[in-house]
Amino acid sequence: MGQGAQGFAGVDLHRRRHGHSLSRSARTHAQELLRNRWCASSVAGMSTILDAAAPTKLRHNRPYLLLMSGKTTQLVGAGIGAFAVPLIAFQVTGSVARAGLVAAVGEVGALLAALPAGVVADRVDRRRLIIGAALVGAVLWASVAVAGVLGHLTAAHLAAVLFAASLVTALEGPAESGALRAVVTPEQMPTAMAAVQGRSAVATLAAAPLGGLLYGFTRFLPVAAAAVAHVAVAVCTAFVRVPLSADVATERETHPVEALREGLRFVWSRSFFRVALLLSPLINLTVNGLLVAVNLDLVRQHTEPLLIALIDTVAGAAMLGGAVLAPAVLRRVRVGTVLVAALAWIAVCFVAMAALHTYTAYVVLTALAVLPLGPANAGTSGYVAAVTPPRLQGRLASVMSLSYLLSAPLTPALAGGLLAATGLQVTLWVFAGVLAVAVAAFAATRAAAGIGTPDTWAADALPDDAEA
């Protein structure tokens, strides 16, 4: 349920780099797609987004298709597994509060790995890093499925796997961001970012009903699907034959600590990055906390899994609609305006959700809240990619990911604790009220006011060899 929310202010960063856009004959391209047809099929649903605005179609960029296909498959699998995690945690602990603590432990791994992950992604071969991380993730999720089927799964085992899996995902994330940046040209960036939002929406749309369906067969089938999806991203990445990393030998000449400092200096040098890093943890905490509280309450009331999944399904459809509209919106409206308006609209929807306090309100208002996230996240992610030198992409991704990761361990624990102590309605009002205050504070800083339409981003960019 939190996928859309995690991308606030472009924190869910996906960066692109020019230089490896392929120009092949149609015949050669067709042969390549046939050889890798199963990998490319998962992005077919986003073709209309890509075709709408790109002068040179991204659908003809084989490395891009492979990376997007693998990651889309992984996101669907991860979403299926994530759907089942709170239900499984509740089953093995018997308490919504303890289930929240299990999920919180899982987020700590990503928090610990966040900053080192960016340095690693800029210093090693990104293809190997993505493949290795994906295969480790597959083993971790498979262990939960096997232990569950054998009747030996414990809360400690589940928490340990969630911890290790989040650590692995944190290592993979900056590498994947830098890899995508390596195969997309600057002029395609806004459309590519919209496709990334469409990818998340497709994953949300598919994961929720599939998770509910698989959980209905057996509660450990969704985590088995997550393991298979990790294998898929490793296979698709292995087929990419172009370089995905910058000059890693040069980067290795810099001490890792100094490399990290360089990334931190760059982030702190930009007012928008500073404000996003300081305020978005609170916004992410309240948005995702509210959604987790609703989910846990529905589990506690023994709501049918498919009804819980319906909220994610409707939200995914709304996110996909927003992603389709994103290229047209970003060509006409300043990104700063889109971002502030989107955050204000989310706050309004969540206040209404707390006031109405019904299942129908959860479904409708969650969908309405996430609708503008497509343009907002595509715009902010595209801007961040445009102004950041390619050699700093991994470190920028890891530093900015802190805006989500700092709140991630607290979210399930706080949501579960408030829910157990005060009930759902009070919990919703607490999260909605704090969200409204945080959004007002963000708007008051005017940090996003200077972000214009994509044709103005080049003026804000630093050259590749600029000092951070």
UniProtKB/TrEMBL annotation:
Keywords: Cell membrane, Membrane, Transmembrane, Transmembrane helix. Its main location: membrane. InterPro entries: MFS, MFS_dom, MFS_trans_sf. Pfam families: MFS_1. The keyword Methyltransferase does not apply. It comes from Xylanimonas protaetiae. GO terms for molecular function: transmembrane transporter activity. It is a multi-pass membrane protein. This is MFS transporter. It is found in: Cell membrane. Residues 63-450 form the Major facilitator superfamily (MFS) profile domain. GO terms for cellular component: plasma membrane. The chain crosses the membrane at residues 64-90, 96-117, 129-150, 223-242, 271-294, 306-330, 337-356, 362-387, 399-420, 426-444.
